[in-house]
Every structure is written in C-alpha cells, then in structure tokens.
Specification:
By secondary structure, this protein is mainly alpha-helical. It has one domain. Helix 1 runs antiparallel to helix 3, helix 4 runs antiparallel to helix 8 and helix 5 packs antiparallel against helix 7. The longest helix has 29 residues.
Length: 156
Amino acid sequence: MWKFNFYSLIENYKLITIYVMGFMYIFIGIRHFIDPQYFLHIVPPQLPFKLFLVYISGLIEIIGGAAILNPKTRRKGALLLVFLLLVVFPANIYLYVSEVPQNLLGITKTDALIRMPFQIPLIILAYWHSKKNHPAWVVYISSIVFIPTIVYFLTI
C-alpha cells in the first residue's frame, strides 16, 4: 500500500530549492564579471570603489551559491548569502529613490519598489537552507515563497 510521507516530500522539495538557488546565485555572480556595468548602475554614489564592490559581491554570490550545493559547506554558504543580501539591500533602496539607475536599467519607480521586498524571501530561503531542521513555520513560509520569488527573478 502506498503511504504519503509529507516530511520526505518537503525534504525533496527543499533539496530542489537548494539546487535552483545555488545555480541562480552562481549565474548572477558570474554576470557581475560579464556585465559589471549593469550592477554599477545600482551601486549608491556615496560608496567608493564601485567596480571592486560589484566584483566582490559577484564573487561572494558565486562562493555562496557553490557552497550551498555541498551539504558539508551548506550552512556557511547560506549564512554568507544572508549576509550578502543584507549588505546589498541599500542598492535596492538607491534604485528606488533615484531616477538615474531606473533610467539606465529601463525600469520604473514602481518596478524598483516591487523589486525591494523580494530580498526578504531570498533571505528566508537562504536561512532555510542554512540547517536541516527548522520550526514548521520556517518550512511552510520558505516552501511557499520559493516559486513566486524564482518566477519574479526570471522575469527581470
């Protein structure tokens, strides 16, 4: 007789999210080196060494993305990504408040506003990936936010 195992289903789903997010971070990190100009547009003008910041954030995305793919380094990689997502959040604020990067990227102020809150599910997902066991609410929220977050980022 077939027996439904919800825990096993969630663990398999979580593993899929880890691989998708890991490869997504690696891909976006590589884009920092292939097309740094795109990322330079959203670095707040007050920050020095803009190109260095673009490269270092890309490198951190690559390292974090690769690290979450390996169970032995997953926790450190996920926490590194949480740190990165928090540190780069001012770039999203700058994108929202300044017409200069909006015009350079061809987006509206509304687009920039919609983009900002997506940092939260990315942080939640990275936290979920940081360890094996979490309270049920973290599992449920992470499971729910994954698909809309990926769909959104595939459209930008």
